[in-house]
């Protein structure tokens, strides 16, 4: 076994000598975020995600350039089921990307991002009633009994009116329907997977987790939808000595692995319970998260 260098404690004098540099770097990061990053462009507050602002792609790119960082992408996993043979006849596409952040050829952060064609905004399209006259999707039902349907001019309609029983209106299908352009998605999904990994990795590398959170606007989803891509909780009852950034990275990778298996929420909970006795990653320690990830990779 090679001799390992002896680790010596930092003396009070040494700590005092480097403290100004540490404080200066921290203040530089905070000052940059406050003076250069623009609200609504580089970051935004996403409804339902708490008090923290969410870092957006333009902001992450500015941080990369400001801190002279280099990012390398690695496609960790790819599923392209064009015929739906392995997914009950429905085409399915999934991408898992790892983003490594370097500064001066030294790896300083890693994060994962995923995207798949069964996320709600990609899997479905909302079918709306269209006007038989002008083709606009501005058809609305009058609130007054007996007045039927109308093509609302204020949102681009022609103003035409139709009886309540007009089959040209009532026979049209409405609500969510399978996306008819599903085969146009793979390139978009891969780019989104890269983007999510990139933003998370830049956030970890710059240490701005105190004021910003990951790019949630692309993958916030309700667990009840069956899409297991819910965002990583910002706060969790893990032990203080455990790195929150490492925890979030592990949870992100676990979420991607579970999502690729197309498990229902109940199946996912059952699996987590079998591994740790807990049914949600937000209640797990670092050791438990690693155990779950090893089991998913086996």
Task: Describe the protein's architecture and organization.
The protein has 298 residues and is of the alpha+beta class. The chain folds into two domains: 39-124 and 179-297, no CATH class; 129-173, no CATH class. The chain contains eight helices and eleven strands. The protein has a three-stranded mixed β-sheet with strand order 1-2-11. A hairpin with a 7-residue loop joins strand 7 and strand 8 (149-151). Helix 2 packs across helix 5. The longest helix is centred in the first third of the chain and has 24 residues, at 12-35. It is extended, with a radius of gyration of 25 Å. The relative contact order is 0.13. Residues 223-245 are annotated as: Disordered.
- In which range does the helix fraction lie? 25-40%
How would you describe the oligomerization state of the chains in this entry? single chain
Shape: extended
Q: In the residues, how many domains can be counted?
A: 2
Order the strands across the largest sheet as they lie in space.
1-2-11
**Residue-averaged pLDDT:** 80
How many helix segments? 8
* H/E element sequence: HEEHEEEHEEEEHEHEHHH
Q: Largest sheet, described in full?
A: 3 strands, mixed
Our estimate of the beta-strand percent is 15-25%
Query: N-to-C terminal Cα separation, in Å?
Result: 30 Å
Say how many strands there are: 11
Region (Disordered): 223-245
